[in-house]
Specification:
The protein has helices at 15-46, 51-59, 73-98, 105-132, 148-158, 164-188, 195-200, 202-213, 219-236, 241-250, 268-292, 310-338, 348-357, 363-373, 378-423; strands spanning 8-9, 61-62, 71-72, 341-342. The protein has 448 residues and is mostly helical. It comes from Microbispora rosea.
């Protein structure tokens, strides 16, 4: 009897899943560029002669006071715009585990374990630093989240020849990471809880769920229900991004049997994802970045004294050291205890590069910092500076590693093409190295 094939870590995705992931990566990469522009613009305005105008814009209050929705623009960004971001994250997570490649538990265990490790270890390092330096422990969750838009934007620039399995791994890890962040926000950063509005939110959420389960797409029905759900969750004291995730989870992934079943085409979740991902990546998240990332670089001693502050040091260490250490340890332990092998054509240094890249924590890290220390406080400004610094360091380190691996894959591809050309010389059957429609290298299996 032939020996059974051992489980492969980070194996190639199906063709349909690869096309879908490529579409998501393209949109998130564009969103990452817009996010970077917005963050830089915020920093420029906050450290320019127009800093007072920028601060006035962030603190400008709009909304109906009788409904307790007279919020500042900065608060609307964190409570309103990020609800759209997490709605898309909820759609994507449900899509992955219902109809994506991760519906197979053997494939899901690696990115899920990596995401868990990438949350636990940064939090522990933050707590260790602040315990040793008598700092504040309430910001422990700040360095636990990966910013998918920034990370994918860096990967698109420096790692276009890396195997598609790595991009899928990063995307799935970040989505699970977002879900864990939402759980942390709901459990640990709910300062007060009003039960009655929270129970009342179940009514519009239930009606929304019934309608989408019946495949209703009418925006004039669904958007008001979503808005009422959001408003009631906001009134309950639970952060409104939780409402976004719950609404995303309510949307069905597969098509109904009357419409032909799962093989008949994209379901309602994918339809909503196509509609809302450009809004999330191109509008909601960049606006949040513009209204949140503007921090005076000279505040609290500025960058020069950053490492002397235990909270700031804990955030930087968590992002730069904790994220890659947690992801790599969890991935290695998964391989160890499942007796799995990393997929042929990949090396552990590739996973290490992505683990370092996952230390880019921006959107959710800024949000958690605001929830932990208070929006607009001096400590909040210092945490934002630490998040920016840690993310920049992680991006630069990952760029070095992934750029070297990208060159290695290019040399291997060139050597493989030359060998095929020599073997097929004179036969007219030579093959060409191809790329997919999105410019990513096709056929990424190389021998190490």
């Amino acid at each position: 009897m032939a020996p059974s094939r051992r489980l492969s870590l980070l194996g190639p995705s199906s063709r349909a899943e690869t096309r879908r992931i490529a579409d998501i990566l393209r949109k998130e990469t564009i969103g990452g560029a817009l996010l970077l522009i917005a963050a830089v613009a915020a920093l420029v305005f906050a450290n320019s002669p127009w800093s007072e105008a920028y601060a006035g814009l962030r603190s400008a209050t709009i909304g109906p006071a009788e409904w307790h929705l007279d919020l500042s623009l900065a608060k609307w960004a964190s409570d309103g715009l990020l609800a759209i971001f997490f709605f898309v994250a909820g759609l994507e997570l449900k899509r992955e585990f219902v109809a994506g490649d991760l519906r197979d538990p053997r494939r899901a265990v690696v990115p899920v374990a990596a995401a868990v490790g990438g949350v636990i270890v940064p939090a522990l390092l933050y707590l260790l630093v602040n315990s040793l330096m008598d700092g504040e422990v309430r910001g422990w969750a700040t360095p636990t989240a990966t910013d998918i838009a920034f990370a994918l934007a860096v990967l698109a620039v420096v790692g276009r020849r890396l195997p598609a399995a790595l991009r899928t791994f990063l995307l799935t890890l970040a989505v699970v990471d977002d879900l864990l962040a939402i759980v942390i926000i709901a459990v640990f950063y709910t300062s007060h809880l009003s039960v009655l509005p929270l129970l009342a939110a179940l009514v519009p959420l239930g009606v929304f769920t019934v309608l989408v389960q019946r495949r209703v797409r009418s925006w004039w029905l669904l958007l008001p229900l979503a808005a009422v759900t959001w408003g009631l969750v906001h009134a309950s004291g639970v952060h409104t991004t939780v409402a976004g995730v719950l609404l995303g989870f309510a949307v069905p992934v597969l098509r109904s049997e009357k419409a032909g079943g799962p093989e008949a085409g994209p379901g309602l979740a994918e339809h909503f994802e196509h509609r809302f991902r450009p809004i999330s990546a191109g509008v909601a998240v960049p606006l949040f970045a513009f209204l949140s990332a503007g921090v005076p670089l000279g505040g609290l001693g500025g960058v020069t004294n950053l490492l002397a502050d235990p909270v700031s040091l804990g955030v930087v260490v968590g992002l730069v050291v904790g994220k890659p250490l947690g992801i790599m340890a969890a991935t290695w332990l998964t391989a160890r205890f499942t007796r799995a092998d990393i997929d042929e054509g990949l090396a552990w240094v590739d996973v290490g590069g992505l683990a370092i890249l996952s230390g880019i924590g921006f959107t959710v890290s800024l949000l958690v910092g605001e929830l932990a220390f208070g929006l607009g406080t001096a400590r909040d400004a210092q945490v934002k500076l630490a998040v920016l610094t840690g993310s920049l360091v992680a991006a630069l380190l990952a760029t070095v590693v992934l750029r070297l691996r990208d060159r290695a894959y290019r040399r291997l591809a060139e050597a493989e093409a030359e060998a095929e050309a020599d073997a097929d010389a004179g036969t007219g059957t030579g093959t060409e190295a191809g790329t997919d429609a999105d410019g990513f290298a096709a056929g990424s299996t190389f021998t190490k």
